[in-house]
Amino acid sequence: MKITIHGSGYVGLVTGACLADVGHDVVCVDVDQVKIARLKRGEVPIHEPGLEDLIRYNLGNERLRFTDDPQEGIEHGMLQFIAVGTPPDEDGSADLTHVLNVARTIGQHMTDYRVIVNKSTVPVGTADRVNQAISEVLEDREETLEFDVCSNPEFLKEGAAIEDFSRGARIVVGSESEHVQRLMRECYAPYSRQKDKLIFMDVRSAELTKYAANAMLATKISFINEIANLAESLGADIEHVRHGIGSDPRIGYHFIYPGCGYGGSCFPKDVKALARTADDAGTSATLLHAVEEVNEAQKSRLFDKLKRAMHGNLKGRTIAIWGLAFKPNTDDMREAPSRSLMERLWAEGARVQAYDPEATAECHRIYGERPDLFLSRQRDAALEGADALVICTEWKAFRSVDFDYIARTLNHPVIIDGRNLYSPEDVKRAGLDYYAIGRGDSLLPVGL
Predict the structure, then answer these.
(1) How far apart are CA 343 and CA 282, in angstroms?
(2) Is 190 one of the annotated binding-site residues?
(3) Is 292 part of any known ligand binding site?
(4) pLDDT for the residue 284
(5) Which of the chain's termini has less CB crowding within 10 Å, N or C?
């Protein structure tokens, strides 16, 4: 099947590479000529496990091509996937500029029937706007070509995107056209051989499904973080509580790991956009606003704990940070808790020594060279000369450590663990103070 993907960012590359890998003939279009030149050489501009190998393999087998010529892409595929960014606007709503620009471009160059598939995360009603944008261009061209617009939201996790695309629990398609449904079944048939994963619904329901799914997961994270903070105030251990509630199959263990807040490109943006949509629709979004508020407060907890542990004085201190990415297996630092922490430390006059297995280059791109930031190439080297250690990301490389070495190396025996990686007893046995999220030592008076 001939397929075109507009947008060679995270979603577009994973979608294009995975569809090519099951035998489809895929062309990826992007207006960034430098990026396209790199992709043609098999150089992938993002870190996603397995993606570079998949792209190189399918480039070699000529099932995947890259171009900066939109006309070439529009002539190629019966299915025209739109997978471009929808960054948050100043009011929290999704900015559809890129989506609508692609729609107009398709309208300018199409010469036959096409199905436009919205893969980008877009608010309810976007398919109607895409339809209108294409119709207006065709009207200007005095053409009466037929086309359909459907919604096919992505459910990819950074760090596990290829697995999610290939083995995801469901494939949602918003279209009531039998012809579109038949084409989408053909597109995804390789992924539905053992079980029919396709769920068809109307377009607006499909658009809302993506936002509702991410908002639900973000809600679980903010909920468990609020309970973790309560556990600390009450002298309880959140890990025991997590096991106690997660064993209930109605709740389950997924997304109830307490931490220093969610980040990345999806949850913060999607929760804000859904809340904005609810406000525009005149519907109360009290819970969504609370989820966002709890998350923002949670990002401050590492700094607050550290400042209390250092007796209120961080000026002139050197703080080691393990983990800069918002989650493991990615170099993405968008809305990462590490950024909130570093920026507050710098504002207090502290110096940062940071290590991350993948996000060092991204951190340098964001903050550049500065005297109060040292990016270490080695995990343990970040500890040398530091006053305390703060953990922001749960990389596997941080799970097994020598606590005696950490206690000997730090100037003050303090670990602030934003991901609850360790047993408090093991850490304290080495003489370290251990402040985690809802467990370990507490810097708060125990209530009740």
Answers:
(1) 36
(2) no
(3) no
(4) 86
(5) C
Catalytic pick among 18, 266, 363, 392: 266
Is 35 annotated as contributing to ligand binding? yes
Residue 29 DSSP one-character state: E
For residues 291 and 193, state if they share a domain.
no
Domain boundary, last residue among 147, 177, 201? 201
363 catalytic residue (yes or no): no
Structural domain includes residue 216: no
pLDDT in tens, 204-247: 999 999 999 999 999 999 999 999 999 999 999 999 999 999 99
From the list 248, 247, 241, the residue with the least C-alpha distance to 224 is 241
CB atoms within 10 A of CB 251: 13
DSSP for 160-182, written as a single string: SHHHHHHH-S-EEEE---HHHHH
Inside any domain, residue 226:
no
Q: Which residues of the chain have pLDDT under 50?
A: none
Would you state the pLDDT for residue 236?
Answer: 95
**157 annotated as a binding-site residue:** yes
* Amino acid identity, position 28: C
The first and second tokens of residue 98, run together, are: 């890129």
Beta partners for residue 148, in sequence order: 115
- 73 and 154, same domain (yes or no): yes
Known binding residue 121? Answer is yes
> What does the angle CA 182 – CA 185 – CA 187 come to, to the nearest 5 degrees?
110
User: What is the DSSP code string of 423-438?
Assistant: -HHHHHHTT-EEE-SS
Name residue, tokens 């500065």: 370
Burial (0-12, 13-18, 19+ Cβ within 10 Å), 445? exposed
Contact (CB, 8 A) for 148 and 180? yes
- The secondary structure of the chain in percent helix, strand, coil, rounded to multiples of 5, reads 45, 15, 40
Kind of pairing between the strands at 171-174 and 198-201? parallel
264 and 181, same domain (yes or no):
no
The reported pLDDT for the residue numbered 442 is 72
